[in-house]
Write a structure and sequence with these properties.
The complex is a heteropentamer of chains A (184), B (362), C (276), D (610) and E (125). Chain A has 184 residues and is an alpha/beta fold. Chain A is 29% helix and 15% strand. Chain E is an alpha+beta fold. Helix content of chain E is 18%, strand content 18%. The chains are: A alpha/beta (184), B alpha+beta (362), C mainly alpha (276), D mainly alpha (610), E alpha+beta (125). Chains in contact: A-B, A-C, A-D, A-E, B-C, B-D, B-E, C-D, C-E.
């Protein structure tokens, strides 16, 4: 009985994706494309994607924008307020690596320095279709029993330790692993 | 005992598109006071502009704000062109007007949709944003990106449009104009929207001027102030009459923006024949770096007057780039308007100045 | 005992109706919309998710909301007294409000307060409806009706519509839980709820909507055609109004709701008294 | 042992035991002794009314005359005292009413009407009220000494001896009041309750208390005058024979004792009194004297226009007081208004007077007495612990004082939520009023408002975030919770045993079978029990406690405290919570509207009867 | 009531939604998408790396490698415009989302331009 119920829940997780969108210091470009993905031409609700206001109700945290030092704490707080299983989708060059702002004094180069990112959606801004792709990839991870928080060894990364030190101007060598280069 | 509630409104709040924080003091459901706090979108853009060379800065400043990116790059380019003494080809000026007005239309559409959402009118939001997609598709077609068109260069525009492209612009404009009818009608005639907005955040013309308000907030009090009257880019050749309203409240601001969408469409109608008639260059190559000096440009953003100030000391890097954004100018008016309103009206009220935090904090 | 079967089916049916609602809304907006079973999947996901919550006793009251509504629907289907059904509905909405008041976030508190206003708007109207039924049938249930009740109680329709919109969180009555995104209340009284707790509230919400539809249908009793027609009409009207109207504030809705509901109901009852 | 209670001696014991205890309580005793006295007296009274079947007290004509002359002396002394108070306080209203009472009293005495030989009658109605009083009073007696240790600190002017005396004595007076048949005896007892109210409200000796006590005095004086006018009109001194206009006038007296509109203010003002007084006199027992009298008169009222008029007045009060309770900021004021509201519902039922209505009224009396006593003790506990009578001070009570919070929530739940008894009574009441559209409509709206304000109070108690305890916060000793637990258990037991209670206690009063809602009720109870069981079985898993949501800028805090957030300049700020209250102007305006409507109704009631 | 008319027409005419995953994206000519290096034209002159406003490009003249970080690219087209050898082009579609960030490295075969085009090797570092 229990394995069956777990399978049902996993199936539902893949079909019902509630997204919390947080603009972590974006120029609005990605944000309005996130909003646009809800509108008739793209209609994210086809896939059970719903934008919610409260982190407690969300399955996916969608981050746009450069993560700056003030927003870093907010992002971490929102992530911590979500119930597992949860996933993070980073949208746009700024949220991925800091983009054009990567070497600013107030910008962390990438949301993955603060929270473990499940899916990266590149673009400046990405088209709504790509954003949908990203959310659905995250949903697939959740449905497969994955949890973006797995291997989250960054609890507390919102603290001063995560100062935007590394990765200045140089190549982004590290990727894949959820651990931040130079984070924890 | 505490009968006042203290509400942390934002930075993460569904009615805020961008992160700002407002500490609201509420009694019952009436807002007594508001203390805003900023710094969630500050990216150090102006400092960064001293690190990048002046050509790269075009791409940097258009990322000040993704909604009116073209107008930011236009303001920057105008300032630099003045500094460099570059004469922009007339065709480029017209193209700049075209993309600028397309941005204005999509920005106002976006705002209309957000307003509809803020008063809980989901279907109208959907309808408005659906219409907005036409402009975005047109952006992609003419410039290669839906949002950040990156078409402005110091010395002109990056691309030219051929006759076929102009036809497609015109066709889109036709469709957009006819689609706008029902949406505009609903915004103007719906009793519920009027009930929510009439009298909301009313300020007089004197107050608006005293608080330094700009753009639709100012025009909604009856003051015919519009930087496009300065005649930058191609506006000098076109008829621009500021859209004004007398009400001074959120509803008047809505009417101003509705009028401005029509106005922008009319401007495009003026520009397209000129573009057809006058072929020519769109970009003059600029090979030298600016010498020491300073320049200032004023352009009209969808939210009001945008000012770029550039100071150079010679060389590739600029000494200072300063951006005065319209939302920054409108914030005192907002803080003045919020107290005394129902908490349920706060989103619509905040939205009524069309705040752009990423512009303001840079 | 057929009503027990009906009761068992009523929850999935209500979930399906919610899906239909979302799909129809999408179509009105020119979108494809979610699958018809979307609400059921949502509920499945929520119920399978632990709740990370700051308020330890919220689940109890959320369960109370669901439980009272389950009882109310069972009572209505089982032919119990209408007053009891309405009182149970009132207790359900009160439980939901308490769940909201437990949430330590100000948004939760404001949402719960508005939930109270919602309840205040439509509970008296439904109690009046019970009296209307009693005046027509002589009992407190529909069972005694010989002609469709609608013929004698037409002025209760606006009040029932108000109640339906309020129970369904539709515009302009979407006050308490911000079913419409981008509102000032985050998620209103559900701000602090997530996972299982929210799942319970969602299920309760289905039942609440269905209960009001059933009450509307009951006005067609004993004609099945009238009953189905009324339920369908209310369902479609609810969706359409939601898309045609913005959300208003309670200061305006309270008098409006009472004018339509209590005013209409009282007029109808006076007319019944005079005509008798 | 049981045989001892089986006749009139039971009745005498029920009346005398509290009076004896009152005399003992006037002595300066230790807390332990006071609690012991409370328990012993409580046990005696309970045994007298529950174990046995008290019977009527019929005296020989000679003895009746003795009683009557004693009563005349008592009344005269009492009226003289009130006149003295009026002069002392320079209250012309109190003086006027006292003079009117005295004049009417002299007139009646001058008429020399025959006193009935049936002095005390222990019929089912009287026995029902005796049981209610006997169930509730001991808990409050036993709790009072604990509360008092706090109260003494904040009210140094309090004189303890009269306070304890009346706390006990009033139960004896009430026991006599609900059994008295001679109208002039009844009047004496009636005025004794007024006097007790006055003295106890006055006991804190604050300015607010002094004003409220005089207000209570003159308003109840109006009631006394109406009572005497009724006696005069009746032309007979036997309560059992009252009818017509006399019944209406007595009903007016009952309405004023039950603080109906427009005389609601005296009970609201009475909240200046200490907690146990509010609990015993001004909610659970003494004000029910009005309900008792109305129920006693119900058959008589039912025959004339007085019944419908009383029903209208009660229903109006039900609505109006609930409306005013919805906007009140003070815990005890909310409780006072809700008491007035509930008394209104009971009087409305008495006015309707059908079997269902009377059953509803009786069930209301029972469950309201227990539940409201519990809530007043909780409010007193909050006051003693946290030092505030403000409803907002009880915000998050369950976090600050978990046991008090749970008891408070249970108390509120018992007053309006199924499957607890009061809801059953309200259901009966609503249906019993079906004959009158106006009354029904008032009850419908009032019922919605009742849900509104109770949920608000419940929400404040149950909130998972509380402000830090104020300076000087105290803790009542653990033993002080036993009376509260007893009352809470009584609510639960009463609800579970609703069907037997209906059969054993309520049906004998009406002399008929109550409407067959019991089956549904039993089903409801079972369903609720099953639901609770399922919940308990399923809800074992405890999930971690998260920070209160503060729009993403949550700051660390201890669980159960108000949410904190990092405001501008990273300074921590507190997300203060508060209930919703209308403006004071709005409250005052709506009170004026209801007072006016009540005054018109009351005048209309008398005019119709004339 | 114009809105009612619009809504009902929406129902009648069916949804306008682009059924994206079912119907693939149609590339728009001239759209700025994923950056590609035509490695046989590239001289590894570092002009693009120097000019890139986002610092998404790195060119090693000695090792003849061109490294591109698509997750930092802001799709501004500047590099394409200034490349003196027209060795850069943009695909009309953007890069797809991925579970890991990776850089793209192109290596020139030898100092003498070879006829075969180098294959782009994705290297999850």
């Amino acid at each position: 009985m229990k394995p069956f119920l777990d399978r049902v829940a996993a199936f539902c997780r893949g079909k019902s994706v509630w997204v919390l969108h947080y603009d972590c210091g974006s120029c609005n470009g990605c944000d309005i494309e996130v909003m646009a993905s809800l509108t008739p031409l793209y209609d994210a609700e086809r896939f059970g994607v719903l934008l919610v206001g409260s982190p407690r109700q969300a399955d996916v945290l969608l981050v746009t924008g450069t993560v700056n030092h003030r927003n870093r704490l907010v992002l971490r707080s929102l992530y911590d307020q979500m119930a597992p299983p949860k996933a993070v989708v980073a949208v746009g060059a700024c949220a991925l690596t800091g983009g054009i702002f990567h070497d600013s004094y107030n910008v962390l180069d990438g949301a993955d320095r603060v929270v473990p990112v499940t899916v990266y959606v590149p673009g400046c801004p990405p088209k709504p279709e790509r954003i949908l792709d990203g959310i659905l990839q995250a949903a697939a991870v959740l449905a497969a029993g994955g949890d973006g928080s797995g291997g989250d060894h960054m609890a507390g990364a919102g603290g001063p330790a995560a100062g935007g030190g590394g990765g200045r101007g140089g190549r982004v060598a590290a990727g894949g692993d959820h651990g931040a280069p130079g984070g924890a | 005992m505490a009968e006042r509630m203290v509400i942390p409104f934002g930075p993460q709040h569904p009615s805020l598109v961008e992160p700002i924080h407002m500490q609201l003091e509420v009694e019952g459901d009436t807002v007594l006071g508001v203390r805003p706090a900023f710094g969630f979108v500050h990216r150090g853009l102006e400092k960064l502009a001293e690190k990048r060379d002046w050509r790269q800065n075009v791409y940097l400043v258009e990322r000040t704000c993704g909604i009116c990116s073209f107008i930011h790059s236009l303001g920057y380019c105008l300032a630099l062109e003045e500094l460099l003494g570059v004469e922009v080809p007339p065709r480029a000026d017209l193209l700049r007007v075209m993309w600028g007005e397309l941005h204005r239309i999509q920005s106002h559409y976006l705002w209309l949709g957000l307003l509809a959402d803020a008063v809980g009118f989901e279907s109208l939001f959907m309808q408005t944003w659906r219409n907005r997609e036409r402009v975005l598709d047109l952006n992609e077609l003419t410039a290669g990106n839906r949002i950040v068109v990156s078409m402005c260069r110091v010395g002109g525009t990056a691309r030219d449009l051929d006759a076929e492209m102009l036809d497609r612009v015109e066709a889109t404009l036709d469709a957009a104009e006819s689609e706008f009818g029902p949406v505009e009608h609903t915004f103007r005639e719906d009793g519920g929207i009027a009930r929510r907005l009439v009298g909301l955040g009313r300020i007089t013309r004197e107050e608006a001027l005293g608080l330094g308000a700009v753009g639709p907030v100012l025009r909604a009090t009856g003051e015919a102030s519009d930087s496009r009257l300065l005649g930058y880019a191609g506006y000098g050749r076109l008829q621009v009459a500021p859209v004004t309203q007398a009400g001074g409240d959120a509803y008047a601001r809505l009417l101003v923006r509705l009028g401005e969408i029509r106005q922008s469409m009319a401007l495009l109608r003026q520009v397209l024949p000129l573009l057809r008639q006058e072929p020519g260059e769109t970009l003059v190559p600029v090979r030298k770096d600016p010498t020491a000096g300073e320049a200032l440009s004023r352009v009209e953003q969808p939210r009001g007057e945008l000012i770029y100030y550039v100071r150079a000391t010679g060389g590739k890097l600029l000494d200072r780039v300063r951006i005065r954004t319209p939302t920054f100018a409108n914030l005192p008016a907002l803080v003045h308007m919020v107290p005394g309103n129902e908490i349920g009206q706060v989103p619509a009220l905040v939205l009524s100045i069309d705040p752009c935090v990423s512009c303001t904090e840079r | 005992m057929i009503w027990v079967l009906c009761w068992l089916l009523s929850l999935p049916v209500a979930g399906f109706l919610m899906g239909v609602d979302r799909r129809l809304t999408a179509r009105l907006q020119g979108r494809v919309g979610p699958p018809l079973w979307q609400s059921i999947w949502d509920a499945g996901k929520l119920l399978g998710k632990p709740a990370l919550r700051p308020a330890p006793r919220q689940a109890l009251w959320a369960a109370g909301y669901l439980g009272f509504l389950g009882l109310a629907v069972a009572c209505l289907l089982g032919g119990a007294d209408l007053v009891l059904v309405v009182l149970l509905l009132g207790m359900a909405t009160a439980s939901l409000a308490v769940a909201g008041f437990i949430g330590p976030s100000p948004f939760s508190q404001l949402g719960a307060q508005r939930q109270l206003f919602l309840g205040l708007i439509y509970e008296p109207v439904l109690l009046l409806l019970a009296l209307g039924v009693q005046r027509v049938t002589g009992g407190w249930t529909f069972a005694g009706a010989s002609l469709p009740l609608l013929y004698r109680l037409p002025l209760f329709l606006p009040g029932l519509l108000v109640a339906l919109l309020a129970a369904w969180r539709k515009s302009p009555f979407d006050l308490a839980s911000s079913e419409h995104a981008h509102q000032e209340l985050v998620a209103g009284l559900a701000t602090e709820m997530g996972g299982r707790v929210l799942g319970l509230v969602e299920l309760g919400h289905w039942w609440e909507m269905e209960l009001l539809l059933l009450l509307a249908a009951s006005l067609g009793y004993p004609s099945l055609g009238w009953a189905l027609g009324l339920a369908l009409a209310f369902f479609l009207l609810g969706i359409l109004l939601d898309n045609l109207l913005p959300r208003l504030t309670w200061r305006y809705l309270w008098p409006l709701g009472w004018a339509l509901g209590l005013g209409g109901g009282l007029l109808n009852l006076i007319w019944l008294g005079v005509s008798r | 042992m049981r045989g001892w209670f089986r006749d009139v001696r039971g009745l005498v014991l029920a009346i005398a035991a509290p009076l004896v205890a009152a005399a003992l309580a006037s002595l300066p005793l230790q807390r332990r002794a006071r609690v012991g006295l409370a328990l012993v007296t409580g046990a005696a009274v309970l045994a007298a009314v529950l174990l046995g079947t008290p019977t009527d007290l019929v005296l020989a004509p000679g003895a009746v005359q003795t009683v009557a002359s004693l009563e005349t002396v008592g009344d005269t002394a009492l009226l003289l005292y009130i006149v003295w108070v009026a002069v002392d306080r320079r209250s012309w209203l109190a003086g006027l009413t006292a003079a009117a009472n005295a004049a009417l009293f002299a007139w009646i005495t001058g008429q020399g009407m025959a006193h009935p030989t049936l002095v005390l009658h222990a019929d089912p109605l009287a026995r029902f009220f005796l049981i209610v009083i006997a169930l509730v009073a001991p808990a409050i007696w036993a709790w009072a000494p604990y509360y008092h240790e706090h109260y003494r600190k904040v009210t140094p002017a309090l004189r303890e001896q009269p306070y304890y005396f009346w706390l006990f004595a009033i139960v004896g007076v009430m026991a006599a009041l609900v059994t008295a048949n001679d109208l002039m005896d009844l009047y004496l007892l009636w005025e004794l309750t007024t006097l007790a109210s006055f003295l106890l409200i006055d006991s804190p000796r604050s300015g607010e208390a002094r004003a409220a006590s005089v207000q209570a005095l003159w308003m109840n004086g109006v009631g006394g005058a109406a009572f005497l006018a009724g006696v005069l009109v009746a032309g007979s001194l036997s309560l059992a024979q009252v009818g017509g206009l006399a019944a209406v006038l007595l009903a007016v007296a009952a309405a004023i004792k039950a603080a109906q509109l427009p005389f609601s203010r005296w009970l609201v003002g009475a909240m200046a009194a200490p907690g146990p007084v509010s609990a015993l006199l001004h909610s659970s027992t003494m004000v029910k004297a009005g309900v008792y009298l109305a129920l006693r008169l119900a058959p008589a009222l039912h025959q004339g226009p007085g019944g419908p008029a009383l029903a209208w007045l009660g229903a109006l009060t039900f609505l109006g007081a609930a409306w005013l309770a919805s906007g009140s900021r003070r815990t005890k004021e909310v409780l006072a208004y809700s008491t007035i509201s509930n008394l209104g519902l009971m009087l409305a039922m008495a006015g309707i007077g059908t079997t269902a209505a009377v059953t509803a009224a009786l069930a209301l009396v029972l469950f309201h007495a227990v539940g409201k006593a519990l809530l007043f003790l909780v409010a007193g506990g909050v006051e003693a612990d946290l030092g505030s009578r403000d409803l907002e001070a009880a915000g998050g009570l369950i976090e600050v004082r978990p046991e008090l919070g749970v008891l408070g929530i249970w108390g509120v739940v018992s007053l309006y939520m199924p499957p607890l008894g009061l809801l059953f009574a309200k259901w009966l009441a609503i249906e019993a009023s079906a004959a009158s559209l106006a009354v029904y409509a008032l009850l419908a709206v009032g019922s919605g408002l009742t849900g509104f304000f109770w949920t608000k109070v419940l929400g404040r108690f149950a909130c998972a975030a509380a402000a830090p305890e104020p300076e000087g916060a105290a803790r009542l000793p653990r033993a002080a919770y036993y009376p509260l637990r007893y009352l809470a258990a009584l609510v639960a037991a009463g609800s579970v045993a609703l069907l037997p209670i209906t059969t054993l206690l309520l049906d004998p009063v009406t002399g008929a079978k109550a409407p067959a809602m019991g089956v549904w009720y039993a089903a409801l109870l079972t369903a609720a029990a099953l639901g609770a069981l399922t919940y308990v079985l399923l809800a074992r898993r405890r999930s971690p406690r998260a920070l209160p949501y503060a729009s993403g800028i949550e700051a660390e805090e201890t669980p159960g405290a108000l949410g904190r957030f990092r405001s501008s300049a990273d300074q921590p700020a507190v997300a203060a919570l508060a209930g919703f209250y209308p403006s004071a102007a709005w409250e005052a305006a709506s009170e004026r509207v209801f007072l006016l409507a009540g005054a018109l109704s009351l005048v209309g009631m008398v005019v119709i009867a004339l | 009531m114009r809105l009612l008319h619009t809504l009902l027409r929406n129902v009648a005419s069916g949804p306008v939604t682009r059924r994206y995953p079912k119907v693939p994206l149609v590339p728009v000519a001239g759209a700025r998408g994923d950056l590609r290096l035509l490695v046989d034209r590239c001289t590894f002159c570092t002009a693009c790396a120097v000019r890139c406003p986002a610092g998404a490009l790195e060119v090693d003249r000695k090792a003849r490698t061109w490294t591109f970080n698509p997750y930092r690219c802001i799709y501004c087209h500047y590099c394409v415009e200034i490349c003196p050898f027209h060795a850069l082009e943009m695909a009309p579609l953007g890069r797809e989302p991925a579970a890991a960030k990776a850089t793209v490295t192109e290596t020139g075969a030898a100092p003498v331009p070879s006829p075969s085009r180098g294959t782009g090797a994705a290297s999850p570092a």
